[in-house]
Task: structure prediction
Amino acid sequence: MSTPDPIASFAEGLDLPLAAVCARLRAIIDANLPHAASKLWHAIPVWFVGENAVVGYDVRKTGVVLMFWNGQNFKTPGLEASGSFHVGQILYTDPAQIDEALMASWLGEAGTNIWDMVGERRAFIAKQKAEKAKAMAKPKAKPKAKPKAKAKPKAKAKSKAKAKAKAKAKAKLKRKTGARKK
Result:
């Protein structure tokens, strides 16, 4: 007993034109990327070179969307940019719309111009771990306290009052002695 083909199962139950588009896309992808491994990934057919997704398709209300994970960086024109990553895509509603020569060109690029999403993800995670380790290694700086306003000691206030009184007495004495000399 053979195991069911998950990619063939994906197209089962679709309207005939969409199922025919899926079958045509699969045949062209398999012929042009014989070294790629295919599987259902996030519930859609996707072909991988190594650990990296390179091409896949999904059925939407408007038709079948063929996606190339690094399609925005291809030299061959015809793909529309999609999302915030490198995906380039094209929509098909009928198998007659598929240009096999154009698709073969895209697939040639997909097999060699690969976005290393696995490597980027690993590098991103390693960077996050390093930053976290660095933050944990540093002792936390204590927040600087605001300088407190210095209260004037009472002794200084009293000494100022004494100095004023002394100065007044001296001035008074000078006036008295000065008045006697005349």
Summary: The CA atoms of residues 41 and 47 lie 9 Å apart. Strands lie at 37-41, 44-49, 52-60, 63-68, 80-81, 88-92. The first strand starts at residue 37 and ends at 41. The chain has a mean pLDDT of 83.
